[in-house]
UniProtKB/TrEMBL annotation:
Keyword match Disulfide bond: yes
Lineage: Eukaryota, Metazoa, Chordata, Craniata, Vertebrata
Basic and acidic residues biased stretches: 77-88
The protein's name: COX assembly mitochondrial protein
Keywords, comma-separated and alphabetical: Disulfide bond, Mitochondrion
One Pfam family, short name: Cmc1
Superkingdom as given in the UniProt entry: Eukaryota
Stored PANTHER family: COX ASSEMBLY MITOCHONDRIAL PROTEIN, COX ASSEMBLY MITOCHONDRIAL PROTEIN 2 HOMOLOG
């Protein structure tokens, strides 16, 4: 089985969208509860440190958020792969 590499550009783009406020519960993006907590902490850090955020004040939270979102992505991929395998077995068994 060929594993596709993690698309870091996609993760960075989604992280940027999260921290800029364009991703909200109303937009249909639902993250793990742990990720939502980290996202809120990062947003709060950006609000409280409007200049220092450019000097790395919030970088630890940003890294933590990226790790969380990457783990979420891996979990969703695994769940989707399992579902696809179940459906493939179901189709193969019905055609025989």
């Amino acid at each position: 089985m060929v594993r596709s590499p993690v698309n870091h550009k996609q993760i960075v783009t989604s992280c940027h969208a999260v921290t800029q406020g364009s991703v909200t519960p109303e937009s249909g993006r639902i993250y793990f509860r742990e990720c939502n907590i980290i996202i809120e902490r990062l947003k709060q850090c950006h609000r409280e440190h409007t200049f220092l955020k450019f000097l790395g004040k919030c970088n630890d939270l940003d890294r933590e958020m990226r790790r969380c979102l990457e783990m979420e992505l891996k979990t969703k991929r695994a769940k989707s792969r399992e579902h696809a395998e179940r459906m493939q077995r179901r189709l193969n068994s019905s055609s025989e």
